Every structure is written in structure tokens, then in C-alpha cells.
Fold each of these.
Amino acid sequence: MKEVPKKFDFTNSELKWQKFWEENRLYESHPIEGKKKYSVVIPPPNVTGILHFGHMLNNTIQDIYCRWKRMQGYEVCWVPGTDHAGIATQVMVEKELAKNGKTKYDLGREKFIELVWEWKKKNGGTIQRQLKKLGASVDWSRERFTFDEGLSLNVRKVFVDLYGKGLIYKGKRIVNWDPDSQTAVSDDEIFYQERKDKLYFIKYVLEGSDDFITIATTRPETMFGDTAVAVNPKDNRYKKFTGRKVHLPLTDRLIPVIEDDYVDMEFGTGALKITPAHDLNDFEVGQRHKLESVTVLTKDSLLNEHAGEFQGLKIDDARGKILARLKSEDLLVKVEDFVHNVAVSDRTKAVIEPYLSEQWFVSMKKLAGPAIDVVRNDKIKFYPERYKKVYFHWMENIRDWCISRQLWWGHQIPIWYHKQSGEIYCDVNPPSDTENWVQDEDVLDTWFSSWLWPLSVFGWENNENDRLNENLNYYYPTDFLSTAPEIIFLWVARMIMAGMEYKHEVPFREVYFHSTVRDGRGVKMSKTLGNYSDAIELMDKYGTDALRFTIIYLAPLGNDVLFDEEKTQIGRNFVTKLWNAGRFIMMMKEKNVFTDRLGDEIEEVDITEKWIQSRFNATLEEANRFLREYRLNDYAKTIYNFVWSEFCDWYIEFIKIDINNSPERSNAILDNAMKHYESILKVLHPVMPYVTEELWHLTGNDRDNRSISFEEFPVSDRGRIDERIETDVEKLKLLISAVRNLRTENGIEPSQKSHLYIAAPSDTKAMISKFENQILKLCNLEIFEFADKKLEGKQYASAVSGESEIYLLLNASLNTEKQSEKIAKEIDDLKRYLTTLEKKLSNESFLNKAATDVVEREKQKHAESKEKLNKLLRLNQNN
RNA sequence: GGGCGGUUAGCUCAGUUGGUUAGAGUGCUACGUUGACAUCGUAGAGGUCAUUGGUUCGAAUCCAUUACCGCCCACCA
């Protein structure tokens, strides 16, 4: 036994155990033949990232499962790593450059990439340090980066393979063009923002006539790319125009009027200008009608040569000038206010320009099939289950994946073009004759490396049958994936597709979609909104365990977490409570003067012991079940309630009394208490690794090199659950509360001893007698006796608790009015209750239709309440 | 526009096959610092279970409707 500090010094403790875990390489994993494994891959955070609340929650969840499984004897392997995060990282380094007035073009591609690597070396370790602080029991020897050599090889391998299978193609498509970073971004990397805009009504004059069609548009500047005007075939207003041609304003071009179902007759004028190069829907209309696509914008969103005199202008400038011209030519009919959604780049916040360009695509339909099946037949389980629906909907309507990005930081596409012949070469390695070939400039979407993550981190690049692949063979498929719901398509779905395509096996068996962390008002936490609490700061302030516990306690499966700094007190107070309980038991052992071990049979005879064992085993049953069912907040709550409301509030109070009354048994009692306490530490270790490790070492003398994280996780022994004893102790608690209540109400000083009479049926008497010492102490009585003596002539306050009537003897005169008022209210409530019961019991249909045990229960309730009512009525008379 | 989730005490949430006089934590109020813990203890107040209707002997629980909040998908010029 070591000396126990009065307070838990979490700052030093965290450093100490981080070091201990790392230096002893406790969480490094190796394939062990015949041993069951549990493997998890971390969702790789951006290499530029810092730990925010979402990470904290997500990694705590993973850590809980890894620690839990480790304590169950599994060979646990949790692989950490980071993502090179194409745009995010490139943008960050470009900003650095801009501070010195430079652009990436000043450096050139090669130098720029070198700079990013340097930047990564300098700033990239942050999130790893923060994960260590969080206590994440990952295997650091296995850390991976999506740009590592092996992982990059896998990326090329998959590209080449899919290209060979004809599943990768290059096509002219409308993509989401981010004019700031000058790259295409996927549909999943944009979001829509509501904007107030104008809707412009413009005349398109019919060829050889004064007649005209008015179209409505929000983007007049794209009119130079118009190649048709479309109307709905059912629209009689425009029948006379179809098949004819109209003058494209401000130009000398003529464009046809066509019919297409896509046009909404109700909207605007019912006539739509078609700009295939700058709108996805228009592009599709254009395909159907074999229209030409005219691009009118440059890559940085300036008008190009098709815009005539407006060439070189920015969109906004051009719009004003074009409108002025239209007005002067009397072609602008009117302008209306208009609210619509505008696509914005997730990374740069630039307004997305639908842009026709050459991009690489993966054809997804074929890959989706097997990935749908494995979720449908539960080879992969989703928690919460409802995400299955979301998944199916997306997968069944899957679109091709635009994988090319016009960036420099990323895996460059393994395609080479022959300088003379234009021949295409696709391979994991460059052509040997480098002189005559030039590589495709584009890089791949970051997710094109992330979707291989569960394969890549275990060395998939090595030959399948190679012994080097024992890692992949042992750890794949992984067992558990915990992730944010917003990347279900971006990442989860694609990993499933890759796993099925390349391993014919799921990449993981269970997926947990964790809560979104919001602030106290329910707004999603984000840096830009400023409602952001710094997770690391709070860990420093309250302790990592406190924060981990709080967030798990607050995060129910399938619901969001509303986090407020104030709430961290839940965890902090609990850590303190746990600490003090341990400190107390240890202090008692230290002080204990009895050296013999009388009363070793304590477990068999002592009702206190039997009770706590019963409660603890019931708690263990629940805790294990909740962990299995991914109900982490319930797991946290169950132990919290047990430790606080049963172990501390009652059990420790009971043993104080037991020891006081039979000090010769104190060794046995305290040993038992310590045994339970240590089990509590084990149950809590997955969620609070530091304080449990600290206490585990403090309570044991011989544990210098043993971590609690390899102790066996306690399981319930159902044979120890004793409902009879639990019921008795519940009654006892109620009795004690009732007496305390009487004392408080009658103004008896806490220090003042009092005298209690109890009237009860004989079996209850027997039960109460067993707890005589506890009742005396916990109610601060000098004496209690059964009320067969006459109470006449004595002043007392009275109450009914269960089957017992209790009479508390008073010295001072009693405030009888208050007493009878209270009892009267109790009588009232009870009478009302009895009425509802009687109504139910006199109801023929209830008696006939309800299950017999239900009827029995109601009858019993009735009898009990009736008896209690009689007792109360008697008390009231006596008063 | 389509889909999904939520609405229970001031706040955060339990309440999992319909059968409790609807619970917990936190906050609030009163009292308490004599040996684990004031980051504490004891006691107390506090709810028409969002609305309306239905099924049922019986509904917080099942069904339908409405309202509000949130999320996802699609995006209409």
C-alpha cells in the first residue's frame, strides 16, 4: 500500500502513464497464431488537423472498444495515421507562400511539393501528440500516412487495375469547378448556401420577325454559351416558335428553339436558355438534342473570347455591363428578386462554377452491387441501424466518381501520353523511355487513397501470397469502424466497395456512426462560427479522463451531443468521487490495527457483502451488455450510478459501521471492499484510462510493471444476484430516508441523538433487526425498539415506510399542524391512487382481458396501499 | 421537393416486446464542515410525457395527423 495523495494530480499522472504505455510498447500488436484478434483502423485525420471535439469523441469511442477487447484477451491492433488531404493541405501551404507575395507557380510543381513535405514535417505532428494526450491506445509502430510509399503504390495499383477493367474513363463532363483553387471538386466537397439574387428576364428575338421569347436567368453572363432556347413540349404558348431560330442577344449568332420535358412551364416564363457548358442540366439537354457546348469562362472565371467585347472581365463586372447593354437595346424586360441555393466549395468557400472539362471518372455501378449486398445481409452492421437506409438510397442511385483534381499535392495520375503519337500508357511505374512521354498533370482525389485504408495499412501492396502479408491475413477484415455520419458516402461506402472488389471480403464488420457534437444551444461546433471549445484546453483544465467520461456520458447512440464546458463537471466530480472512495478504503486499511483475519467467512454471512455483490454483478451484466450494444452512454451511466449511489452512498457507509461494531473482522471486510473497488477500476478503465491506472498502481504493491489495461474485464456472476436481499436493502434505505426526513422536518439537530419506535409485521421486524447497527448509526439514534410498548403520553413524530410505522420521539414540542398536514396530503394522494386501482379492479374487461399476472400485481398493489392508508389514518388520529 | 431522426422536470437525457402514483443527473431551495469526498452530505420543490384524433380493459410507449427543431439527399433556370 502506498501513500495516497489527497487529490488526483491528473497533469502528472497523464504524462507518467503515457510514458509508461509507450516505453513498454504495451499497445503494439503482432499477429499471434491461434489468438483471437480485434483490429481497428483510425479514420485518418488531415495531416494539417488539430484535435476537435468530433475527434475526441470518435477516438474515445474507439479507445473504449480497444481497451475493452484487450481486457477480454483479444490481440488488439488499432492502427493510427493521417491523410494527406489534397486541397486542405495545399491551400494551407499556398497561404504561407502568399504571405511572402509568392504563388506556387513561382516555385514550380516539384519545388512546391518539396515545400509541402517540409511543412508537414514541421507542423504535421500535432494531432498525433493530441491523440497521445487523449490516451488513445493505438499501435504507434504502425502509423501510416496516405502518401507513404506503400500506400501510394496501392493507389496506382488500383488505378491501373480499374483502368484495365474499363472502369476508369476520361470524359468531358460538367464538374464542380472551384475557381479559387482552380480544381474540380466532387459533389461531396461542396455545400449549398441560400443567396439573395436577381432573376433577369431577357428578350430573344425571333429570326425574321419582331416577335420574341422572353427567358428568365440568374446568369446573364453565360448567354454567350447559349446554344438553344428550350420550352416544354406541352406548352402551347410557344408552339409557334419551336423549330425556328432566335437571335442570341449581343451577338450575331442564331440558336434554335427546342422542346424538352425538363423545362418547367410554371417557372419564370416557361422558356429556358440552354448553356450546356455551364450547367449540368443544360448539358444533359444538350446531349439529348446534340447541341454544341460553348465554354465562355476561363479556369479562373473570366469571360473568354466568346464573350466578344466583354472578354477578360470578371463575372460580376461582366454581368453589370451586359445588363446595361441589354437595357440600352431594349432587350431587358424586367428584374425580380430571387432566392436560390448557390453551390460553394467546402474548402475555399468560393462559389462553384459548373464547368465543362476533361476529367477522370470511376464508373461506380458495378462496384456498388456487392457493397449493397453485404450491408443488406448484415455482413456489415450499422449502428444506429437507420443509416442503412441512407446508404442504400445513395448506393442504388450512385453516380460516377470524378477522381481527378487539378492540384499538385496528391497522387499524380499514373497515365502517360506519348508526346508524338498521343498514345496512352497506364502503369504503376513510368515508361522506361521518359523522354517521349509526359505524365497526366492531374492528381487523384484524396478519397482515392482513403478508400483503400483498411487494406493499405496492413501492407496490401505486398504480394497477396507473400508471408509479408501475414498482417493483412491476420487483421483483415477489421472488426470495428467508428466514424462521423457525414462521411458515410465519401469514405465508408467506398471502403466497402474497395474491400469487396479487391479482397472479396468486407473491410470491417461493425460500423458505429457517432454523434455530432454541438454547443449548448444545439448549433454544430465549428471554428468559423466561433462556438468552438478547444478540446485540448479543456483536457488541461479538467483532466482527460473527466472530459472523456463526460462526452461519453452525454452521447447517446444516434443522437447529437450538446456540449457545454459546464458539463465537464460531471466527469470531473466523478473522477474525484472515485479517487476519494479508493483513498478512504486504503486509509482504513492503513489504520487498521488488527492483523489477524478473523471472519474470513464474511462473504457467506454478511448481508452487506451479499448485497453489494448482488448489485455489482447486476451492474456488470448491464455494463457488458451496453458495451456489446454500442450504448456507451448507458455503460457510463450504469457504472456512475453504481459507484456513486450504491458503492459510496451505502456500501461504504455500511462497512464503516460493520468495522466499528466488529473491529476484529475489519481485515476481511476491507479486503472485500478493496476487491470490489479494484473491479470497479477495471470496469471503468476503458473510459477513464489514466485515473484507473493510477489507482490500480496505488492499491497494489506488486504492480510496478503491470498495467491495468491487460487485467481481465469483470463479467457478471449471475449466481451472486440475490433479489431477496436487494429488496430487503431497498426497504431498509426507504426506512432510513423516512427517519432522516422526520428528523429534518422536526428540526432535530444532526448531532442530536434520538429515540425511535417501529411497529411492523413480524417478518419485517426480523429484517429490520438484522440492520440494527446501520439504522442506529445512519439515523443517529441512541436507541430503536419495536413499538410494543405504549406510546401514550409521549411526544413523537410519525410516518409510514413500507409495512412499518415509525415513531420518532421528540423532546421539544411537536409542530403537530405541519405533521398532520403532511400526513393528510399523503392520505389524499393514496386515496386517489386507490380509486384508480379500484376502478381498474372492478372493470370486467380488465379482469377478463388483462394477463393474470398483471391482475395479480394490481390486486397486490391495492392490498398494500389499503394497509398503508389504514396506518396513515391511525397516525392522523393519534395526532 | 424527397427521406430520416427528435420533441418527457429550468437544462441534458433514461423510460427496448403497452400494465409505475413517469425516473436519473445537473441546476434550484433549506439545513449541515465531529475523520474519504463542500468537486461533499441530508432533505425538499419541480412534469397535462409537443398537438389532435384513433386502436386498446389500459398509451409517454402502437397507428395517423399537425406544429416546431435538427440532419441527409436532390437542386428548378
Note: The two ends of chain A are 56 Å apart (CA to CA).
Amino acid sequence: MKVYKIPEATVMRLSIYSRYLKQLMDDDKETVSSGEIAIGVGVSSAQVRKDLAYFGEFGTRGVGYKVEELYGYLMKILGLDRRWNIIIIGAGNLGSAFALYQGFMDRGFTISAILDVDKKIIGTELEGVKIEGMDVLDSRVREQNITLGVITVPAVAAQEVTDQLVNSGVKAILNFSPRVLKVPNEVILRNVDLSVNLEVLSFYLAFNR
Amino acid sequence: MKVYKIPEATVMRLSIYSRYLKQLMDDDKETVSSGEIAIGVGVSSAQVRKDLAYFGEFGTRGVGYKVEELYGYLMKILGLDRRWNIIIIGAGNLGSAFALYQGFMDRGFTISAILDVDKKIIGTELEGVKIEGMDVLDSRVREQNITLGVITVPAVAAQEVTDQLVNSGVKAILNFSPRVLKVPNEVILRNVDLSVNLEVLSFYLAFNR
DNA sequence: TAGATTGTTAATCGATTAACAATC
DNA sequence: TAGATTGTTAATCGATTAACAATC
């Protein structure tokens, strides 16, 4: 496969397009143009076509795209035509919220393990998954073919947990802790920093008026 | 005030710099260079200086920046030298997790109200804040000077809730629902889309190997 | 054929990086 | 003064937008 570098913004939009197409499918719409998608998700039609062009030609000139077909392509491009196993580290409020969120299931993600250090919650269940101690991290990741780690521990513990996940062979990490984490190049890291998001809003509120 | 357009990426980094400076303050470090900050947060030193340059000159050539002083400037720039009142709509898992997260308190945010439609949880408390019904949305926002709304309701309800928030006078919205929301120009909207984040990881996992 | 819409190229815009004079 | 580091300009890089030939 010829690998051009795909902008991250493009990937995020593809995910959003796919969700919009799902909506259209529910409305039994059969065909859609780049212009309609653009309006639906708030970007330009050129943007939509450019994003798709990284991966191939999916439409018909003068006609548009077949909704269901394009949806299928996008799911495949996004790697959502198969399942990914997730391990959640930290079963506090955020970790629990994440585990309980139903939306992920439909999109190809399986929560395979949930770990915490707190003896009081170890042994209890979340979504049918038993919360276990940190000692099983390595074996769970290896035995259950887990590729994706979600970090919802306090900031101070985040780097250590990251190192453990990396050593056990996790390939990608979604980090909710407000810490800048160091990972080897081959591990994919994404940060969802709730504080930063709130503070960006604070900035624009304070700055513009 | 002369308003140059500040890149959003710059604002996000300022928030991260400020957190790093806080760490340095805890370690009683007095001075820091752009190069040290750069290594600490994983960007280039030119980036650090450029980001700061949007707002003024905060350092001393040949010396660097006074940690505490720069921290103070950044907090001011980010609008964190005062408090912002927040209303959370949706007290499910994610809304609760958000409400219970302590980090926001320290950074100038006060959770003033939490609303939900579920009769079973209305009347219960989260972090000392009573969960109320949607009928009080307007009065709460107006009376308690709430500028910031956090949307943690299911996707289907998100646009309606958004409209209500906008009508009641909220100035900025942090949206956790996986929906593209329409807001008037003057309202600042940020989306934290957990699904999209997970799917970006899925993409790179599937694409690179 | 006329109208619509794609796929793609070229132009534009904006953000990052490199380089260096200013200066402590 | 010599060494260090800022603030800023110019060069580079990358992403978005505009425009249009291809084609259904």
C-alpha cells in the first residue's frame, strides 16, 4: 500500500462523515453529494472531496456518492470493519464513564479489561467486566490481544501506567490525564485533555470581550 | 486591545505551558528557558517563543523567563485569573465524571448547576450541587451568571439543549455529544468527541500495518 | 445534449521552523 | 567581554480553498 501522510484533521473528519452517512442511511437516503455532506457536517465541499481523494475514487461524476457504499468504505478506512480490544486503566469517575458509554460498542470497540489500584473497587463489575488489580496488566494485554489502552488515572500515575502499557505491547494509547506522556515512536498516542479544552473556552471568553 | 487572530493550537499549548510552569514552581525552580519548556512539553523552543510573542515580551535575553511571573501572565492570558460559572446538562456517567473531576476547581471553574431529565436522579447531589430538572435552565443561567455550558446528553437531545443554552445567554459550549451542533457566530463551541478520538487511533492502527 | 457533480490541479492561506540580530 | 537566550523576521512546510476539466 502506498502510504501518503494523511492529515490527522482529515481522519477526524472521515469519522464525522461516517456518522453523518449513518444518519442518512437511517433516513433511507440512497445518494448524497459532497455538497450535502459538507453542509451536514459544517465543512466545505472541496474539503470533503479532498479528504476522500486520499483513499480513492468513491463517487460518480454528475451523480454523487452512494450513501451505503461510501459508509462501508469509510468504516473500512477507519479500521472499524473489525473489533479492537481495549484496556482501561483507572476505574474512577472518568474511567467508569468511558466504560459505560455505549457508543463505542457499535463502532468496533470491546472493553476487555478494566484495572485499578483501589482495593475497594477491585472485584466489582462495570458493564459486565470485572475490575482487577494492576498486577494482571501484562497478562491481560497479552492473552486477550489488547491493542488499545485508555488512561484515566490521576496525573501523577500516568507516566508509570503508560510505561507498563507500552511494555506489555499495547499499540495505541488514549490519554485522559493532564500530563505530557513519553512513548516510543511506534506507539500511537492521543491526548484528550478536558482541562485544556475548558481553558481554551476561557481564553476566547476572556480575550474577545 | 489590538486583536490578532490567535491560532487555537497556540492557546492549547499555552494551557499546557502553564501546567508545566506550575510543576516547576512546585520544584522551586525560579528561571526557565524556552528550550527547557520545549523539552518539558514536547514542542520546539521556537514554538514556545512564538506562542508567547502573540501576547508580549515576558522574558529576558540571555537569561530566560521567571517561572512564577510567566505563570502569572499565562493564567491571565487564559482568563484563569477569575472564576467562570459552569452549567452541566446531563448528569449521566460522563456528566457526573465531569462534575466530580477536581482539577477544574483549581483552575478557575465553578460548577454552578447540573441539570437532567431523569426524575430518578433529580434531587440527588453531585459535589454538593443539587441535580435539577431542565425547567430551571433559563433561570439558573441568568441568575447565577453562568457563561459556560457543558453538554453531556445523548446525541438526539444535543441540539435542543444547545438551543436552550444559547437562548438563555450562555457564551461558550463544551460539547461531548457526538453531534455536529449549530450555534450562532458569537457563541464559542468546542467539541470533545470521544468516539472520534478512539476512531483516529483505530485508523492509524489499521492503516500503518 | 444540458446540467450536475466529481476528482484533481493550482492558488491561497496559515502555522511551524530556522536563523540571527538584539541584548542581558 | 563571551556565552546564553530572547524576540522577530524570513523560509519552509502543510492544509484548505478555488477553479475547472472530466464525465455521468
Note: Chain A has two domains: 3-77, 84-196.
